[in-house]
Amino acid sequence: MPDAFKYSRILLKLSGEALLGAADYGIDPIVLQRVAGEIAEAHSAGVQIGVVIGGGNIFRGAGLAAAGMDRVTGDHMGMLATVMNALALQDALEKLSAKVRVMSAIRINDVCEDFIRRRAIRHIEKGRIAIFAAGLGNPFFTTDSAAALRAVEIGAQLLLKATKVDGVYSADPAHHAGATRFDILSYDEVIERKLAVMDTAAFALCRDHDLPIRIYDMGRPGNLMRIVRGEPIGTLVQA
Ligand code: UDP
Predict the structure, then answer these.
(1) Domain coordinates of the chain in residue numbers?
(2) What is the pTM of this model?
(3) Which of these CATH numbers, 2.40.440.10, 3.40.1160.10, 3.30.70.100, 3.90.1150.10, describes 9-238?
(4) From the alpha carbon of 63, which atom of ligand 1 is closest?
(5) For residue 74, which atom of ligand 1 is closest to its CA?
(6) Is residue 3 very low, low, confident or very high in pLDDT (cuts 50, 70, 90)?
(7) Which of 51, 71, 75, 140 to mutate to test the pocket of ligand 1 (most atoms within 8 A of CB)?
(8) Strand arrangement of the beta sheet that strand 158-163 belongs to
(9) Is 136 in the pocket of ligand 1 (CB under 6 A)?
């Protein structure tokens, strides 16, 4: 592990929206390549990386339920959407010569491995990027919760939440001109100020296990490398 890096093992949470680009559905191949390039760069520099990917660019259970579908069925579709995104990211990373394994929380063995914690850690230790698909495998959860759980399970030193904004603000910067960005927040401050960092279950898991969360803008090239080098990009939430 080169001295220049602050973190040797990270868990990166990518929302499905991260793959949308300008479209409102599906995967933009140019955006996918760029995201894969950022991950591959940090990985080839020696950082061990697990990725949890969402599915919101394809299906979300809550949205399908609002349109009249059974919620559990909708959540199953949402989880399958995350598997599709994971396969797309695997493909893009492999085109950059990275070694990758997709591991799913629901059994779908013909296309990827099952999530088995010890095997996931082994993959990461052997220099493979592990992409964790299908969230927690249960309905009524989100991939934020999966990101928190997998981060704790693999012993990540940092949970990185990649978003379209450059951190956590005191109010929505799109609607409040005076909104200010926090550089650093404690878990308690996030709760007291009712800041939407992650969903409550995910956040509670991070807090209980003292896992720092960094929320950052993934649209700015080079941010992932800056963060693993220890630069204070975005907002850090910690004890
Ligand atoms: N999902 C689920 N259980 C999980 C993770 C995800 O049922 O453990 C479903 C849920 O319907 C969710 C969808 O998969 O809306 C896609 O995940 P998410 O909304 O977290 O994706 P993101 O917003 O990160 O793109």
Answers:
(1) 9-238
(2) 0.96
(3) 3.40.1160.10
(4) 15
(5) 11
(6) low
(7) 75
(8) 113-114, 100-104, 129-133, 48-53, 9-14, 158-163, 213-217, 235-238, 184-186
(9) yes
